[in-house]
């Protein structure tokens, strides 16, 4: 169906929903690269006005990627909960924005609403929201998950400890892990990106992380971020797998480019559940996403990158994950050119994920060919902490020596917690206190002796 | 060595930025400025420009025809925003035909200073070795605002048997002088990454120019037998393999 909007004497026409959404999107380089961005600022506001007048119910009858062609669309349509949608079914996108910002939309209301929301509804609403709106609404969401601790409670900010090493050297990984623990990181997960997807190497890291966790008796979980099929092999071989990781996207095509589909993810999910390793809960999946992946895989169907990103969250929530994060600045300047675009995208991704019910974190990051620096990361981190982000990354000195990009440091995690009055996950906070962590001296507390984890 | 009990002892085990100390919750000044310096170097490397005259001078002894081109991206900002244009020669570009040759491209990629520093040493050993192995090396194309796949357009124009692209790699905080080498047998516009073999991290402190040249020659010799590069060609170079 076509949409039209007058601005002054100019009449703008948008032939279908995906075009309307794309033209309404605040500017970013990836949409220009895909050829779907608005040509002028006036065309963009015309699309935003038309979008604001669009009834939410329209999304039940028009998909941005055809139902017959795409299993993600089928998942979104078939799992939509009409009862949960009922309270907002007569609203427009603009009316829904006002509804979300009003005090009546509290945590309990938003939690009950989540199954009634489709990703495209949420993405559409975000396109007519400012940064402050995205922060305000996200901060009201409380999406709690559990494995060996409790993630996502109000007033808490968790950190994924990311101790990557260029050659997967177990002692290098252990040293970076201890560094992070001493700086209060690791309650979201201790998660290593392996340098290779080799099964033997992955088994070695899994085993080493599990022994480290047990040696220090840390109430947290570990993960090696290998391909899901590699982790399934590792589970077959009896490896201590806490969380199954996979990168996912918002169309069947991009997921195929990652070597996965919904059936494979379901199989991995079942296999991880069968291990029953969680002591407090059984949220066993960890997903990463990022705007631009579908265009990069030539599987975007002419849909803007932010709408597709929100669709990836529908894939994620099907599997009740412990953690989901957008790797917002990793993909490069052809998708998000500068600090301004990365800031906006990070807040959109967090808002959309939270509203859809996910334990949403963000990898606040950039590459050296993007127009961004540490100041941009500080701004995004501070905004996200104000928005109640579930977790951020912790990398030694913000410099990932394996992936060659800059993320947030352990120090940044301490800063964000202090600046916004946030605390670690409760079980982990107790552990930090028990172990005597928090001192600024050079001495390592005896209970955390490096010798206990093979560093001698 | 003594049993580690101090935070700073962790530095023994990794090059990651561990045990940086604290000023409140922030980095101490020295560590903060170390990071800023590394980032400044990486940023300058991304925006660095090839000194083509100097390159030509350093390649003089090879006595190969040299031609300069610029991709359709034309300038740096456009190059960063439009990877597709960095893969294309401007329409109507004329290159000397050398059917059946191994054409060589020196491309700035994401780090002109990296390829500037590493390419001459590598070509000065690779080119004579190619001749000795019965290949016809050259011409050399110096390409600005260029991505790897620009080599496909070059190979098509030259009618080369294969294209070897030397290209500056995206700078990290620890290395801003790194070069990659990509080989594509029978490259033509539309060739994809699965059809290439890659040698990465060529720099002092990474792979040496001699080692990379030996590997490139081995791959080309195998590609000639196979009639293909890419997933079909596994790198099984014996550790004893030498250039001559």
Question: How is this structure best described in words?
Answer:
The complex is a heterodimer of chains A (456) and B (244). Chain A is α/β, with parallel strands linked by helices and 456 residues long. Chain A is built from 20 helices and 14 strands. In chain A, the strands form 5 sheets. In chain A, strands 7-6-5-12 form a 4-stranded parallel beta sheet. Chain A starts with a strand and ends in a 21-residue tail after the last helix. In chain A, 58% of the residues are buried. Chain B has 244 residues and is an alpha/beta fold. A 6-stranded mixed beta sheet of chain B has the order 1-3-2-4-5-6, with helices on both faces. In chain B, helix 4 crosses helix 6. The longest helix of chain B is centred in the middle third of the chain and has 21 residues, at 112-132. Chain B is globular, with a radius of gyration of 20 Å. The chains are: A alpha/beta (456), B alpha/beta (244). Chains A and B meet through helix 2, helix 10, strand 14 and helix 19 of A and helix 1 of B.
What is the radius of gyration of chain A computed over CA atoms, rounded to a whole number of angstroms?
A: 22 Å
**What would you call the structural class of chain A?**
alpha/beta
Task: For the largest sheet of chain A, list the strands in their spatial order.
Answer: 7-6-5-12
Profile the largest sheet of chain B. Answer: 6 strands, mixed
How are the strands ordered across the major sheet of chain B? 1-3-2-4-5-6
What summary fits the major beta sheet of chain A?
Answer: 4 strands, parallel
The number of helical runs of chain A is 20
User: What's the multimeric state?
Assistant: heterodimer
Choose one word for the global shape of chain B. Answer: globular
Strand content of chain B: 15-25%
Task: State the total count of DSSP E strands of chain B.
Answer: 6
State the shape of chain A. globular
Low-confidence runs of at least 5 consecutive residues of chain A: none
Would you identify the regions of chain B where 5 or more consecutive residues have pLDDT less than 50? Answer: none
Radius of gyration of chain B: 20 Å
Q: Please bin the fraction of helical residues of chain B.
A: 25-40%
Helix content, binned percent of chain A: 40-55%
């Amino acid at each position: 169906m076509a949409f039209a909007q007058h601005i002054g004497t100019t009449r703008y026409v948008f032939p279908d929903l995906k075009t309307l959404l794309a033209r309404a999107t605040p500017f970013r380089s990836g949409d220009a690269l895909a050829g779907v961005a608005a040509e002028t600022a006036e065309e963009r506001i015309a699309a935003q006005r038309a979008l604001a007048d669009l009834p939410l119910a329209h999304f039940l009858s028009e998909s941005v990627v055809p139902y017959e062609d795409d299993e993600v669309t089928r998942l979104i349509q078939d799992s939509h909960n009409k009862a949960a949608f009922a309270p907002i079914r007569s609203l427009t996108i603009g009316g829904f924005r006002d509804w979300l910002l009003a005090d009546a939309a509290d945590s309990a209301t938003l939690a009950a609403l989540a199954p009634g929301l489709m990703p495209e509804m949420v993405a559409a609403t975000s396109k007519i929201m400012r940064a402050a709106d995205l922060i305000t609404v996200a901060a009201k969401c409380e999406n709690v998950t559990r494995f060996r601790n409790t993630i996502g409670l109000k007033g808490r900010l968790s950190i994924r400890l990311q101790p990557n090493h260029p050659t997967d050297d177990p002692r290098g990984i252990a040293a970076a892990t201890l560094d992070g623990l001493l700086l209060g990181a690791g309650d979201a997960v201790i998660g290593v990106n392996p340098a290779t997807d080799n099964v033997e190497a992955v088994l070695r890291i899994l085993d080493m992380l599990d022994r480290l966790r047990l040696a220090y008796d840390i109430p947290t979980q570990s993960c090696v971020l290998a391909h899901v099929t590699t982790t399934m092999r590792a589970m077959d071989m009896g490896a201590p797998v806490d969380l199954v990781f996979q990168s996912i996207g918002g169309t069947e095509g991009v997921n195929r480019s990652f070597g996965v589909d919904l059936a494979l993810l379901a199989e991995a999910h079942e296999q991880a559940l069968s291990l029953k390793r969680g002591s407090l809960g059984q949220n066993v999946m960890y997903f990463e996403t990022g705007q631009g992946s579908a265009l990069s895989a030539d599987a975007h169907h002419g849909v803007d990158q932010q709408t597709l990103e929100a669709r990836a969250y529908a894939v994620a929530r099907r599997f009740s994950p412990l953690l989901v994060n957008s790797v917002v600045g990793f993909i490069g300047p052809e998708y998000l050119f500068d600090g301004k675009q990365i800031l906006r995208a990070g807040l959109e991704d967090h808002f959309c994920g939270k509203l859809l019910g996910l334990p949403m974190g963000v990898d606040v990051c950039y590459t050296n060919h993007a127009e961004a620096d540490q100041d941009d990361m500080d701004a995004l981190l501070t905004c996200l902490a104000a928005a109640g982000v579930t977790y951020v990354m912790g990398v030694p000195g913000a410099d990932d020596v394996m992936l060659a990009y800059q993320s947030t440091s352990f120090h940044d995690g301490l800063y964000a917690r202090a600046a916004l009055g946030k605390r670690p996950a409760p079980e982990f906070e107790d552990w930090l206190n028990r172990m005597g962590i928090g001192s600024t001296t050079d001495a390592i507390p005896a209970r955390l002796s490096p010798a206990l984890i093979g560093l001698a | 060595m003594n049993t580690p009990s101090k935070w700073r002892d962790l530095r023994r085990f990794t090059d990651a930025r561990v045990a940086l100390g604290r000023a409140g919750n922030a980095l101490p000044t020295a560590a903060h400025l170390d990071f800023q310096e590394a980032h400044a170097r990486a940023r300058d490397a991304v925006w660095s420009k090839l000194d083509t005259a100097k390159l030509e001078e350093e390649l003089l002894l090879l006595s190969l025809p040299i031609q300069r081109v610029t991709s359709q991206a034309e300038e740096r900002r456009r190059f960063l925003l439009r990877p597709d244009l960095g893969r294309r020669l401007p329409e109507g570009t004329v290159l000397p035909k050398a059917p059946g040759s191994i054409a060589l491209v020196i491309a700035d990629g994401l780090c002109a200073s990296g390829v500037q520093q590493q390419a001459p040493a590598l070509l000065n050993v690779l080119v004579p070795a190619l001749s000795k192995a019965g290949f016809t090396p050259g011409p050399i194309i110096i390409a600005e605002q260029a991505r790897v796949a620009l080599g496909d357009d070059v190979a098509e124009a030259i009618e080369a048997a294969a294209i070897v692209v030397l290209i500056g790699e995206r700078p990290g905080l620890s290395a801003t002088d790194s070069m990659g080498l990509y080989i594509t047998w029978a490259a033509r516009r539309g060739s994809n990454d699965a059809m290439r073999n890659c040698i990465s991290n060529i720099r002092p402190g990474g792979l040496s120019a001699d080692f990379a040249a030996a590997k490139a020659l081995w791959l080309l010799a195998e590609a000639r037998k196979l009639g293909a590069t890419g997933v079909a060609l596994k790198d099984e170079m014996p550790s004893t393999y030498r250039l001559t």
